[in-house]
User: Fold these one by one.
Assistant:
Number 1:
Amino acid sequence: MCEFGAGKCIFANIAKLTMQKLKTIIFGSERKAEIFNYLFQKSDCFELAGFYDPDDEINFNGMGGLLYTGNLLEKADVFVVDRHTLRMEHGVIENLIRFGKHILFDGFHHGTDLPVEQFCSLQAESRNCIQVANVLHNKPLFTTASQYIRKPRFIKLEKHCPPPGPGEFSSWLFAELGQDLDLIKRVANSEIRHVSARPIFLFGKNPDLLNIHIEFDNDAVCHISAGRAIEPGLHRLRLFQENRVFVLDFPENTLTEYRPSDNQHQLNILSDEIPENSTELSTIARPVMPFDAWQMELRNFAENIEKNLTPRTCLADWLGVLHLTQRITEKVQRRYHEV
């Protein structure tokens, strides 16, 4: 191992790379680099060239700017950005895009102030691959469910999560519900007509429950309930479509389909709760497709780079989530200034 400059920028002493492998640098902690190094050992396309931790104080100059980032451009073709990094400078990512570097974000980055729209504009010129990995949409449970979902009319999400702290509503909303909102937007497959949102205060000055109502142009409707007033551990998405209800239980990684035993009862399944042991409904436990989500992400990433394809989750999807969370935040803070 060798140190790069005075900062903590460590590059692996690796064997000579084959022509097929792409040198990859991790923007994140040493632990995150170890995780990706393990993943890359199973990959024929990527190999770790090192990591650079934007949150390590030693990597900053006296003005608060990151040191040595320009030198990193020469050392790798691919950069992975950990979604948990707190001090990832906008300009660093913009330079990576301008120089045609391929970027893999480890999920929707928790920094809601990143100029994603600017990143989209730059990518349109540079034509490099920017992929967002590790989101619900790309994982086995939804990949399996997507084979059966056809034009849902009613979407209901319930999720237990901690309440936001004072002044943290916007970042909390994105971190806790960003992936779910992304999933809902793409399942509905329609532009949003109307959004309403209301926090409910039960145990103190911080909202304990957030209710969100979304109406789409195709007349689909979505209702979201999230917060600590929801049953602990619950994270469930229900999709109501003609003659079918699908229940995705994320903690249990299960997909259950309900269908009417007799079509004359098809409207009964639109009730708010699915009755247990109902003779009117047939229950089918759909097996979830088993695959390694990260190995699939890396294979898709390599193929997208090679063939110049658009990733399953890209900057446009990220931007769509940001716009929706901004609309919800405006609705809430317009009436509840203390949030």
Number 2:
Amino acid sequence: MTQGSCCALCGKDSGASQDLTKLPSYRILVCQSCWDNAHLGWPEAAEPALFQALAAQGLLIPDRNDNGRLPRDYAPPADFAL
């Protein structure tokens, strides 16, 4: 999916990039709805887009949280050069 003013997960056009939340750990932009729906971690349906974003930038896949989901936000290891 494209960046710009579209959510990287659902593709919804926000109309303005300020309506999107920037996820520094995944380096993508997501709409408020996707962000809110991931309060317990990213749903399984979001994983392909998250894995693609991480792979495209050579970033590590984070450990799953206690709910068995990818964390909504995480910090890569301190020795990993971003």
Number 3:
Amino acid sequence: MNNKLKNIITVSFALFFVGMTYYFIQRHDEKLLNNPALWGKMNDTLANNVTDAERRVALQFSDTTLPQLRRLGLIKSYTRTEIETVITVSGRIWKERSSFFKESLLEQIFIYNKVNGFALNTRIIDNKTSALYAEITPPCQRLIY
């Protein structure tokens, strides 16, 4: 076999290898970009590791606890952004509540945000003075002031 034929075979093999590599990389990228299961949900280990009890607490918070606290006048507004949840409360009613109630409310809010894949950062502030009454900071700190 002469050198010219060897060069043609070597270049052909190299071009074939580069072409196949490009094809498989492009196919892999298309699979990732066109997979609807990867869009719209926060892919976080906290959101994926929830128990049935946590799902029940989260559902109870959104269906029962939050509306009742709004009706009672404790919660004045509930705002959620991509980075945090801000809850404004009536300072007078908040101060009358027991520490057990406050800790339970923070726990329910934490579980609700965790189950639904929302940001865990939460602040509870006075609706008139903007004083900070409580907050949740990741990973699991719940502080009541």
